């Protein structure tokens, strides 16, 4: 079954039982996310940081300070390294970044000796729950990590995201490579990348999905817009995954859906052996919880 | 309308059109005069041969060409003759140009002259060849094998448009275009990626009513059985009408291999100009010259 709502996503996460969630240097934001996931019955947090500080935070949050597993680390950087080590040793299933810099977290993940990168690139997959028009989930890739992705990085980000969608029950997710227009022009290099990526898909160089591009946002997600423009194919109008040209486009598109349309989102960084969650202070509780659920479902494997 | 399958169908098609007049630049050699004589006699074009009248008459006498078949415009010297012939086309008193004894460089210089030449603003001078290969079921249009050494993406867009127009003139209603490269997989080198981009443009109908596929290796482009063996599913499966090559080296080698090994008859012309320009060389067969003139007239 294709997961099409966040409630379904949460149900799916619950089926896995409590998964170990390593929180690197918890502060209020990440602790809140961890506690929500714990309450929902999908996560068993492992809090990595200064034990006294963590207990103090737990008390402040109204939680039992002795009810959670704590791993000691003196600094944010060390906490990242410990969290990654837990993930590497399968003592953690999902990593949640706390009061460490994103760069510190990525540094630990990408470390050649001790890191856990598996894909050629790390990318962010942001899911938005469209409760108004399409009543489905829509992924935006990448509004968080890949700043100005090269052609190769875009292809890897597609592969990363397609893997997530397979876990969400989509056999052949529909990937739209976005630009401002659906035509190809040398004046907009992202349209050229989109054309190349589409040919790579046609040649079987990108598997497990359907790809079309360039597509403008409207003809990617609106069957009406696609039909007015006369764009056929399996993706136009019904895309599941939107590959944006760069981080600005992804960020603006994502935040537009959050703030203008009021869609709930969930965010996960993929391309490592375990999913990594980088919560934002502005995230509401549902986004925090669904991000953990997404991390769990996206990476759950029967056998590792 | 059935697509033409042989170059020999072009003359008949030309005869159905309004009569075309050809200006011959520096027509002071026997090869040129004989080609002109045949084209006029077969009713393909009228001709005005530009060059020294005395010399033209003399050479015509030697090779038995009847000078009454065409007009002679008396101009002394190679470059002045080229310029005068180009001017006839530019002024509209001729519909197409043909190279005579003039060196290709000088001929091109006349065509390319910004003030007095035949290249419109934004035009891309390029070359289109059509092959009639014995035993092969369709005519093949190839570009660019002769003019632009390393075409940019934008030049390839222009080349493709001209080649499509030529294919249309051969009654191929929806040309199948192959953007050639070494492999059908999209690889990291420019010709492969440009072929993918050009295909994307075609898919988005930016070339009008065509079917395109690329990158495509030439065997997949031209032989359906290869597509079958490789399980290749594309818009073009061994049935390409138009071949767009990555660069002049590839195009030129392909051209000569087709002519020599496959014993093809050819017709060719310069495109991107306001009127077709024939650029045959002495090495071309008489038929090839004749078909080139006919192709020019068909597209004039």
Task: Please write out the topology.
The complex is a heterodimer of chains A (304) and B (300).
Chain A: H1 6-15, E1 19-24, H2 28-39, E2 43-49, H3 51-60, E3 69-72, H4 76-88, E4 94-97, H5 102-110, E5 123-130, E6 136-141, H6 151-167, E7 174-178, H7 189-202, E8 210-215, H8 217-221, H9 223-228, E9 241-243, H10 247-259, E10 264-270, E11 276-277, H11 285-299
Parallel strand pairs in A: 1-2, 1-4, 2-3, 4-11, 6-9, 7-8, 7-9
Antiparallel strand pairs in A: 5-6, 5-10
Chain B: H1 10-15, E1 20-25, H2 30-41, E2 45-51, H3 53-63, E3 71-74, H4 78-91, E4 96-99, H5 104-112, E5 126-132, E6 140-143, H6 153-169, E7 176-180, H7 190-203, E8 211-216, H8 218-222, H9 224-230, E9 242-244, H10 248-260, E10 265-271, E11 277-278, H11 286-299
Helix pairs in contact in B: 2-11, 4-5
